[in-house]
Specification:
Number of helices: 17
Structural class: alpha/beta
Largest sheet: 7 strands, mixed
Radius of gyration: 25 Å
Number of strands: 12
Helix content: 25-40%
Strand order of the largest sheet: 6-5-4-1-2-3-12
CATH topology of the largest domain: Rossmann fold
Shape: elongated
CATH class of the largest domain: Alpha Beta
Order of helices and strands: EHEHEHEHHEHHEHHEEHHHHEHHEEHHE
Oligomer: single chain
Length: 402
């Protein structure tokens, strides 16, 4: 079966999360992603893990999550000959992706103008924390820092506690989606015009764009968002929007639902006194406490059945393990596996976008450091003799078997 991005070659200099997630999404759709890592240590994510544990004894779950369907070549970017080779590769490439701090790759001769000089059709996508210039250009652009800076953390948590960052790398993942959006748009434009271009994506702008409704509300309505002390799910929302406890110590979430329908379904006529939008906002903590008393009278499954029968928007609250066993997740086939040469059978999240004619699929596990270096250089016309010389000089690292 055809691949949507078959024939698109990407030179991927990115590391950690933002860039690698973007190129993985493109690789899932068939792009030929060549991951150019640092000789020796490779992508920084290879040295990071959760729980102080490693898959297969040495492999990072962080790295394995974002680097499937790619081939790795590990090179010394400071080497003059390596620079020549990469520029030769660029003549046959379509896209360059990088998310080093601004200026780092340009100083090594791998900036947009360097690639454009050898391939005017090249699309160069640069990711950063705060943009290519400005007052924060030299600051680290890390996900949690961006969540705090833009207001996401201040919007999250209870009013009597501190701001809370999201339990996932939201800024990085949004940045990755923006990279993909920009790259695909640029590829389409190039089909029409023949012109390449530079794309700049930064975490700050991306997170601001995804907080658009909160910013429009605050900046136009003259009122700040204030986190409630209860479990209301958003600082701009009235009760009952939030998460509630059940009799068996579990939780359900209740979203936008007619308040009267809710208290009638819970057999709680005492809640009728709050049935006014202004009151539901002004007294939302009090309402949440009263609703929580009522939900604790039911076990989770019984409450969900009762609420759904009344067409109330609700869902169970899962942890990761429970979510992986959820019937909807199983039906969607979103938990799958691949075989890794060190990690063995690795359970991973499947591609999320479904396409009838060109479906995304997992064909390669995340690579070992430089695993495909010899294979990649051979494809670009570098001789076996020179490949061996690069390895002997330490300008290229090859781990595993190509």
């Amino acid at each position: 079966m055809d691949k949507a991005l078959d024939g698109v070659t990407i030179l991927d200099f990115s590391h950690l999360l933002q860039g690698p997630f973007a190129t993985q999404l493109l690789a899932d759709m068939g792009a030929n992603v060549i991951k150019i890592e640092r000789a020796g240590s490779g992508d920084l994510f290879r040295s990071m893990t959760f729980f102080a544990k490693w898959i297969g004894g040495s492999e990072s779950p962080n790295f394995l999550a974002w680097n499937r369907n790619k081939r790795s070549i590990a090179l010394n970017l400071k080497s003059a000959r390596v620079h020549e080779i990469i520029m030769e590769m660029a003549t046959k490439a379509d896209v360059v992706v990088q998310n080093f701090r601004p200026g780092v790759l340009s100083r090594l001769g791998y900036g947009y103008e360097d690639f454009k000089a050898v391939n005017p059709r090249i699309i160069y996508c640069s990711g950063s924390g705060y943009g290519e210039d400005g007052p924060y250009v030299d600051r680290p652009g890390q996900d949690m820092l961006i969540q705090g800076l833009t207001g996401l953390a201040a919007n999250t948590g209870r009013g009597d506690g501190p701001p809370i960052p999201a339990g996932s790398g939201m800024a990085d993942q949004i940045g990755a989606m923006n990279m993909v959006y920009g790259i695909l748009s640029a590829l389409y434009y190039r089909e029409k015009s023949g012109k390449g271009q530079k794309i700049e994506v930064n975490l700050l702008a991306g997170m601001l764009a995804h907080l658009a409704q909160e910013y429009v509300a605050v900046l136009n309505l003259g009122q700040d968002l204030v986190r409630p002390n209860s479990g209301i799910g958003h600082p701009g929302m009235q009760a009952p929007f939030g998460i509630y406890e059940t009799a068996d110590g579990k939780y359900v979430s209740i979203a936008m639902s007619p308040y009267k329908t809710l208290y009638e379904t819970l057999n709680a006529p005492n809640l009728a006194v709050y049935d006014d939008l202004t009151t539901l906002f002004d007294k939302r903590d009090e309402v949440w406490e009263k609703v929580n008393v009522e939900t604790r009278k039911y076990k989770q499954g019984d409450l969900i059945d009762r609420l759904l029968a009344a067409d109330i928007w609700c869902a169970v609250v899962n942890d990761i393990r429970a979510a992986s066993e959820d019937p909807a997740v199983k039906h969607a086939g979103m938990i799958t596996t691949y075989e890794h040469p060190v990690g063995g059978t690795v359970r991973v999240i499947a591609p999320a976008v479904k396409m009838s004619e060109t479906p995304a699929r997992i064909e390669r596990p995340a690579p070992l450091i430089g695993q495909h270096g010899r294979e990649i250089l051979s494809e670009f016309g570098i001789s076996t003799k020179e490949i061996a010389e690069l390895e002997a000089r330490g300008d290229m690292t090859v781990q595993g078997v190509t």
